[in-house]
Amino acid sequence: MAIISTAGLARTFQTKRGPVEAVRGIDLTVRPGEILGFLGPNGAGKTTTLRMLTTLLAPTGGAATVAGCDLARDPGGVREKTGYVAQSGGVDPTISVREELVTQGRLYRLTKPQAAARAEELAGQLHLTELLDRKCAALSGGQRRRLDIAMGLMHRPEVLFLDEPTTGLDPGSRADLWDLVRRLRDEYGTTVFLTTHYLDEADALADRLVIVDKGTVVAEGTPSALKLTYAGSVDATLQDAFLAITGRGPAPQDQTPVAV
Amino acid sequence: MLLHDIALVFGRYARQTLRSRFQMLFGILMPLLYLLFFGPLLTDLPLGSHGSSWQVLVPGLLLQLGLFGAAFSGFAVIIEKQTGVLERMRVTPVSRLALLLGRVLRDALLFVFQSVLLVLAAMAMGLRAPLAGVLIGFAFVGLLSMSLAALSCAFAMTVQTPVEFGPVINSIAMPSMLLSGLMLPMALAPGWLDVLSRFMPVRYLVDAMRDAYVGEYATSSMLYGVIVALCFATLAVTVGTRVFRKAGA
Fold first, then answer.
1. What domains sit in chain A, N to C, each tagged with a CATH number?
2. What is the spatial distance between Cα A140 and Cα A157, in angstroms, rounded to a whole number?
């Protein structure tokens, strides 16, 4: 039984220059407890898809079910059962970490004591305890990211959507974040749907990859399966497979060596 | 559930405001300057009213405070759009109406608070008005602030940058202030200007408030003022909610 399934999910934006089909029809399924890497070149429709699956943007075509709720008929149900961490995060720099977490919990309809306790618990798990009473503006990039994720986990969602979670992080913070995502899945069975531009991240973290280009799914499978199919060998890099799939390899090298 | 959500959203913004003395006090600077440097000019002029010139000027200044303050409320929405705060709240199950009403109520309360300070300053300058009238005036300021803040937030949802937002708001707020007769009553205006001003909702509010400030509560101006203020508030909140409900902003 899939926890996310979409059929022909599409979004067309009306602009002054005519309609723009950002997402032309996405068909995908995600199994419960899976870490799914959602990849694609810039402008492929990743964020638009994510915004539709998290109810921020109404689809103009197709259908989807997320965590047992129909996206069009029961967006409220989808919101209750999923968490979303946008690329830009979303905390107010002037507010303290604790206050943001507690208010977020209460927006998810936890009671005040529940929200306070959950904030402490998550802060402990995400190494934010010392920072609880600091303003969000005072956090480093890695700390901010952990806070963003804590915000998305306050209500113990079944599905967590992460939009480029490690962009801008140093190698140590990235490794921490990968561990966190794995722990979420291993200990709580959370399904994680993440987009990334880092192919090493997708390779290391995701159980399965879905690659989109020009608004549709162009390939999917485990990282090794994609390498074997598209780059000819399981020892190839995901980079080779990705470029073969999206057809945007580097320009062919000029045979004559450049004169020095 | 809606009340719970409104209280929650209101609480978030109210705490933010309480932490910022600047936000709490800055709004009264402009009306205070008018009070100090413009008010004394009117003391001996015939303004076509029973009361003193202060009873004519102060209601106008209070509505000016609400008008300019609330019309720019949307700036906060634009900032929250840019920091991702708004979107983060929109993926929670919180009611969309509460996301609007919570912040709009904070604005209304903030401007009523500033109005109280302004009235105290005006009393030091020589304003004398019945308490009931002054309280009615605060109610008008609250309603107008709420309406304008709702429209301003709705407009902010549809623009991308503060650069688009500021000039548009300014070019609406300034003529509204002049055409509503906030500085001087429209009773002094030539016919064409008086007719033009009757298209401005705030005109009816300020006329009603000026009646209240001289202790006349059962007048036709008061009736029109109450009707216009309530209709405008209903319209503004309806428009605002519709925009806040629509996804993709």
1. 4-244 (3.40.50.300)
2. 26
